[in-house]
Structures are given as structure tokens and as C-alpha cells.
Amino acid sequence: MQEERWHRQGCLAGKGLALSPGFYPVSVKKKFLVNGITRGKMFVKKFKEDFYDVIQGNRCLLLVNFDIDAICACKILQHLFKNDNMLYTVVPVQGISNVVQSYQDNCNDVKYVVMINCGGIIDIVGHLEPPEDMTFFVIDSHRPLDLCNIYSESQIRILHSQGSGEDIPEYDEVFRDSSEDESDEDSDGESRQAKRRRLNEEDMLRKRERREWEEKRDTILFNYSQYSHYGKSSAVLMFEMAWRMSKDSLDMVWWAIVGSTEQAILNKVEPQVSVLEAGNLQGQVSRLSHRQGVDAERQQQSAVKIIYDKDLQLALYRHWTVESSLRHSMTTAVALRLWSIRGEQRLRELLAEMGLPLAQSKQRFSSMDLNLRLEFREMVEKLAAKYHVEDIIGASFTLQFGYKFKYCASDLVYAMLALLESSGKDRSPHHCFLDAMDCLSRMKKDTLERGIEKAKVMLASVFKTAQGILEMKKVMNAGSFLYVIIPEGTVDGRLFAHPHTLLMLAQFVLRAYVGSSKRKGAAAAPLVASANYEQEEETCLLVGIPPICEDQPRSLFGKAFEQAAKNINAALDADYFDTTIIRLKTQDRSNFFDALATLLT
Predict the structure, then answer these.
(1) Which of 108, 149, 410, 420 has its CA at 20 to 30 Å from residue 262's CA atom?
(2) Which segments carry the region annotation Disordered (predicted)?
(3) CA geometry: angle at 258 spanning 78 and 294, to 5°?
């Protein structure tokens, strides 16, 4: 199966490339030729009537991507399914080939397949070749969506948020009647004299119009698909459906909050979108708390309570030491330049000026003096402007259950990420997926605590590796982009063979580099990070991220990666649902970076 996934890429353009008639391969062009059928966008707007009521009472197959938002969305659906006594099968999937195999293994006696964050960007019918009576419901935050899914007759139905603002091409702009092609093909058997008679002025005009339409179509497709980005959280979409069905709860809104928080932490959506979404979710929390008779002044400790309040954007600080949290949170580490000796001095100065004894800062936050704990946020706020760490002042959601269960949404995101990406010889990816899902259960506190401990190791490894890269000046400038290669043989090297961890490292390194660089235009440079993936197969993992100056986190690396690989005739494994994440033969990496630099110049 591994060998089947390595393939030669088709001709796809990247930034600054001129469009050509060969912009899309023949196999792709044929997808946009139909037999005179006009179709509308297959978006499901009425989630209850056109999705939930349709599948209710039937056994469903849930294919769920390995990301936090997908897991949270799945958890909400599971809760609804259990309440309605529905039969379902949950299968975690890590890539496109995994989707194909999982579908083939589990499609018997199933008429409805729900794909969460894993089906929107691929031609589902083309990849899975399902029977005509099989229906797929797609809940996917990846963008852009595949046009064959959008304009499916009825087999593919996409759950889509209202007013998403996506510029989706019209059907007639990208699909055309194939009867003309068939007539041209039939003419191959004609005699030369008959062909000459057909080449009259009308035929020439028709062919010219078709060429012009194809060129325009290629331009439209390129403009639509050139950037990879993310849409609304799938977990939030599922919560909104539960709300409209009057089946929502505080647990469900909490899962939606965690899914939305993952998008914010990993910079999948612009900050203002995260703020607006948090405001909407706060309104839902207030409504549900009031409905369930939750009173802040008379709260029973056995009940669930979600609080939205001003908080410090410091990673895991309630479960770590203050010093470690300040050191390993990207915002403070970059602002104070903690990878340098001068940065260490500034951290000591900050702690001293806060009036926080060094001994206290090295203790677990929960073990600190009570007065210091209560005053900690105010201490930081007073000095935030002086030390240029204003960004750590914000607001967050906190879940409280009983006396000891108190976690903010980002705690769960970091814990789930750490568990999700801790697969190895002693732990399969499937078990890691279940561990991450267990973090959402209030009854599985031990799993959540284990995830938090792993998250500490993960964040410390990200900082330590970034520190080494910056100290050794390993961020290379390729002109149109930056790149960094994680050294082989490091203790933490295996950790970065996972996409999310490598993504976090790339974002840390880019922000630190831009913050400390004197080079003009550094903020406008995207970055590619690479780490060894499989030592035996001699493959490496690559992740591309957009420049930090971009208001919208859209990346052009998906198309650029494909074109660069084609230009050097390199085998590329683009199996991930995020097209900015790929695998490559390690021996091709150097030539690949050269080709990418030429392409983006």
C-alpha cells in the first residue's frame, strides 16, 4: 500500500506561474465534462431535516480525521446517536489512502457515510467508487472543497455554514457538455475528404470558442484552488445542529469550544474569526447555564460549570510551573527571546519585578502560595506592555466539575495533541486516537492528566529544538521562502515525524526568526520545515506555513509542492488532507528545495 501511494504529480501551477493549456492533466479535465446535466451546489443548509433526520434509524459509518476539531465533532455526533439509539461505527483515518481502505473494510450493510474533516478536498466518488445508493455526508473544515463533491448529483452532500464567503465557481464555468468531444472522437474514423468537408468556418469557430472556454476554466480553477486554508470548525457546526434540534448540552458546547480553540492555537483561522466564534459560544454557554439552573453564586460543586473570563494565554500554567509556562509558551518565548542568554536574563527580571520569588516560580502553580496564585494574573498584566507580551492577555473558557476538575480549553487541546501524536512501537495510532477522545470525558481525568504530562514534554521539545535551530542559525533563506531541516539523530527527532508537532515547531521558529531578524521582508516570507519521517524507508516529512504578516492564514504551498516535485521528477506522497503537508524521499529533498525556490521566485 505504501508503494501505491508514491506517484508522479500532474501539472499544477504555483505562485507566479503562467497558466498553460496543460495546467490540468487530461484525467482531471475529463472530470469537468458531463453529458448536458446542469446541477446546483450540493450544500446541506438544513442540518436536521436534510442530514440528521435522513440518517436517523440507519446504521452509519463515521470516518474521522486525526485532528482535535474532528474528534470533538465526532464526540457530539456520538452523543446524539446514543441518545437516539442509533447504530454507528467510528473509524479514525490519517490520510486519503486510509480513507479508501477503511471504506472498503467497513462499507458492507451501510448506506450512509459521515466524513469528518477528511472528505471535502478529494473527489469522493472517484476515489471510493461507491454504489449509487450510498450517500456521503461531508463535514470538513479543509478548504478549498473539491468541485466534484460540490456539484455531485445527490450522492455527496456537504454540511456547510451559512455565509461562509467562499468564492466557489459556478457550475457552467467549470463543467461542460462532453457530447462535442465525443463527436470529435467519432470523426477519427472518417476519410480525409470527409474531414476536410467538416472543417468549415463554423467548426473552426466552435473549436476556438472551446479553447477559450478551457483557458478561462483553467484560470478559474487555479484561482479557486491555489490557496489551502480552513473554514468553520466542524465541532461548532455539529453543536449548532444539536442546538437547533433542542438536544444540546453544556458538555456539547464544551466540545465545540475545544474544537474551535484548536483552530486558534494552530493558527488555522484568523484571530478575529476566533474572537467572534468565542463570543458566539459564550452566548450559548450563558443560555445553557441559565436553562439548567446554573447560578454562579449558588453553584453546586457536583454540577458542570463553564466560565468565560479574562485569562492568561500561557500554555498549561495551572498544571505547570510559572517559569516553565512562560518559557515554553510561544508568545512569551518569542517576545523575550528566551533562546538567548539575554532572554534568560529578561525572564529573571520579569519574575523579580512581578514580586514572584524564584523558588515559587519553580513550584507547580497549584502548590504556590495562595495569595501569589490569586494575584498572578494581575502581576503579569501590569508588566505586559513593558516586556512586550501584551498578547498573553486575553480570555478563555474554563470547565469546572466538582472541586478538583478545572481545565481551560487550551489545556485539553495541548493534552489531546500530545496523546494523538504519541504513536510508536508500543502504541498504535488507533489507540492514540481513542486516548485523545477520552480527554473529552469528565470521567477519564487520569487520561487527561497523562495527556497534560505528555504535552509538557512536547512543548519543552518544541522550545529546545527551536532554540538549537536559532542558536546555530539553521534557518536557511531560499530567497522566496525560508526553510529549516531538523537535524538527524536528536533525542526529540521522532517527535517531529508527526504533522501537528512539526507544524507547532515551524510556527515557533518562524515567529522567533522574524522577531529577531534584521532582514527586510522577513515577515513576508513563508517557511517550510522538514524532519525525518521513516528512517528505514528514507523518507522525510515537510510542512509549509504562510508568512506571519498574512491576515488570513492561507498557504500556497499545496500547489507549489506538487509543481516542484514534478519539475524534478520526484516521487511525492501527498496523502494528507492538508495539502501543505507532504512526504518525500530524503534523497530528493535538496533538489526539491531548489526547485521550489525557482518556482516561487
Answers:
(1) 149
(2) 176-198
(3) 85
The three three-digit cell numbers of residue 137, written as one number: 455526508
Residues 483 and 531 sit within 8 Å (Cβ to Cβ): no
Report the Cα–Cα distance between both ends of the chain, in Å, rounded: 36
Percent of the chain with pLDDT over 70: 87
Whether a cis peptide bond, with omega within 30° of 0, leads into 144 is yes
Tell me whether residue 200 is exposed, middle or buried, using C-beta atoms within 10 angstroms of its C-beta: 0 to 12, 13 to 18, 19 or more.
exposed
Is residue 478 within 8 A of residue 432, CB to CB? The reply is: no
Q: For residue 439, which of 494, 499, 397, 399 has the smallest C-alpha distance?
A: 399
Q: How confident is the model at residue 332 (pLDDT cuts 50, 70, 90)?
A: very high
Cα 135 to Cα 154: distance, rounded to the nearest angstrom: 8
Does 19 or 240 have the greater pLDDT score?
240
pLDDT of residue 11: 30
Residue 336 has pLDDT above 60, yes or no: yes
Q: How far is CA 303 from CA 78, 93, 182, 289, 391, in A?
A: 22, 35, 68, 10, 33
What pLDDT is recorded for position 7?
33
List the grid coordinates of 310: 479574562
Burial class (CB in 10 A: 0-12, 13-18, 19+), 554: middle
**Angle between helix 68-83 and 234-244 (nearest 10):** 20
Q: Is 80 exceeded by the pLDDT of residue 571?
A: yes
DSSP state of 321: B
142: amino acid identity, one letter: H
Grid cell in block for residue 378:
494581575
Q: How many angstroms separate the Cα of 111 from the Cα of each of 88, 128, 133?
A: 11, 14, 7
pLDDT 10s digits, 530-564 = 999 987 788 999 999 999 987 778 899 998 999 99
Q: What's the pTM?
A: 0.88
**In 60-132, which ranges are continuous DSSP H helix?**
68-83, 96-106, 124-128
Question: What are the contacts of 206-209 at 24+ separation with CB within 8 A?
Answer: 206/180
pLDDT for position 20: 35
SS (H, E, C) 211-251: HHHHHHHHHHHHHHHCCEEECCCHHHHHHHHHHHCCCCCHH
